[in-house]
Amino acid sequence: MREFIRGLSVATKLRILVGAGAVGLGLLAWQSVRVLETRMLDERQAKVRATVETVHGVLAAYARQVEAGVALADAQRQAIDAVRGLRYEGTEYFWINDLEPRMVMHPNQPGLDGKNLSNERDPNGKRLFVDFAELARRVPAGGLVAYLWPKPGSAAPVRKISYVKLFAPWGWVVGSGVYLDDLEEASAEEARRVLWAAAAIVAVLGAGAWFVVRGITRPLARAVSAADRIAAGDLRQELVVTSGDEVGRLLAAMSAMGRRLADVIGEVRAGADALAVASQHVSIASQSLSQGTGEQAASADEMTAALQRMSASIE
Questions:
Q1: CB 3.0-4.6 Å disulfide test: which of 101, 132, 229, 230 passes with 234?
Q2: pLDDT single digits (tens) 121-140
Q3: Which domain CATH number covers 95?
Q4: Number of H-type helices and E-type strands within the chain
Q5: Separation between Cα atoms, residue 63 and residue 169, nearest integer Å
Q6: What is the DSSP string of 35-103?
Q7: How far apart are CA 48 and CA 178, in angstroms?
Q8: 209 Cβ partners below 8 Å, 6+ apart?
Q9: Total domain count for the chain?
């Protein structure tokens, strides 16, 4: 793997680095969206729980009226009427069923009032009101149940999570919920904003990386070309340096190196030429010396011959 990476060009390495950064940013954006969805769901659930707790307090207030002498049926009727008209966030409502489970009051579907709901199922087959009653009986502090239920004014069931809690003095289960399609739409809108922001960041990083890659690879290509020309013997090339970064300094150093090599080679050539001239002078001097020596030898021979003739004549 290391050898493979070493074999990649600088531009490819930089592109891989930018790509890895973009992938990391995408994963971070995805995780942010998931965290956002979870947080929004938690906030909705907390809000629903708080509202159910409030209605639980309303029922407790009517129950205290019974202790003060008000008839139980009258107090319950007044409590039902009060809860029937309660709304929050515009259309969100509360219902009441008992532990049988029988519907005590549903503000949007009054036809269910007084009906045994043991066999009432959502499209997935869940007996939701049985689950409400069992959860309320098992967990007095209340809890959450997920199921499918139509929104007000619609017959199509959608995902919903409701919080239910038992009002033990009367055996009533008070509940309210949030439709998850609203939550999913809000989460999707937030997700789109996050993803658009991430895309914009990636685009800016990509553009910046393109300029950086171009600013590095082009001067490097010029440096490689200059090195090739120097290797081929072109030592007097002039490299135009347009930046003061490391690559610019490399080009400047290569240009200076080429000029210095040319100067050194010029000095070597000048020395070689001077040496050749000196050698020629030495050769000429040697030839002159050899010629003089020959002439001296001939004169000596002539003198010897003359002395011999003189000696013969004397005899």
A1: 229
A2: 999 999 999 999 999 999 98
A3: 3.30.450.20
A4: 6, 5
A5: 8
A6: HHHHHHHHHHHHHHHHHHHHHHHHHHHHHHHHHTT--HHHHHHHHHHHHHT--BTTTB--EEEESS-BE
A7: 7
A8: 14, 15, 17, 18
A9: 1
Tens digits of per-residue pLDDT, 299-310? Answer: 666 666 666 776
Cis? peptide before 101, omega within 30° of 0: yes
Closest CA to 102 of 130, 83, 123: 130
Which residue, among 153, 157, 151, has the nearest Cα to 120 in the 3D structure?
A: 157
* Cα 107 to Cα 82, 87, 188, distances in angstroms: 11, 10, 30
Q: What are 19-44's pLDDT values in tens digits?
A: 888 888 888 888 888 888 888 889 88
Q: What is the CA radius of gyration of the chain?
A: 52
Domain span including residue 153 = 8-192
